[in-house]
Fold:
Amino acid sequence: MASAALVLPGDPLPQLTPFLSPDESTASSKPKTLRLGPGLTLSPSTPSTPILPYRHGALHTSSSSKRPTASITNTPHHYHPAVQDAVLVTLLRSTADGFVVQLTPYTTPATILYDAYITNNAGTTAAVRKARPNIPVGGTIYARVATVHKHLEAVELAVPSTDFGEVLSHKSNNTATNQDLANRAEVTPYVLSISQPMVKVLAAEDTLGKPLLSAVSSKIPFEMIVGRNGRVWIDAATQREVVAVVRIFTAFDAQRMWDDPDGGVSRTRELVGKICGR
Structure:
């Protein structure tokens, strides 16, 4: 990420003009080399600045060699559920119709109906009592947001496939020895609460999340599941490694390293080296 500046709707953005081709200065021009992300639009009525923001937020530009991009991001401090969001929730209790879970600490509990909980590849749901998973209170469930009732402030979740469901640690494999299994059984995964900007960092498919993840994985092999509701499930081979990854993610989030001019690359490497060793 090259830069981040706060802008308001209608503000001129002359800093984006260099991204346009030299022969595209007319009012009907369209940028060939600049990809417009959310929050930006073409404005033929302003030839001097043909790109204008239509919402407030931070202007992010990326000078990629293949195709530069620009977008306006306005990340809220709290999570607002949206249909199809993948989330990590905590089981509070079971009822006759489904599971009652905690989506976030500041919202009303959500529900997962047994009819919407797929338990196997054959499509069997938890409505079949014999197929109902025995999840302990406090267990973590990976689910998708199915319905958001805005006026009732209620959210219904679903477990649409076997890729979702109760999140468990992979404590055994075909090549593990008895000693490996004994050591692995002592490891407890950690569910870390993170900010919404940090969620975007970890879930990014472009270059935004790679400096952090590549730096950590080069020192510690680990697994993670990111929930859009501000939670990330972390697991590793030993408890010490789990704690190290949690410390790195916590420091990266608290210091907002993604706002650095280099996307946090230098400070992330220093942080990982400090916690994991050079």
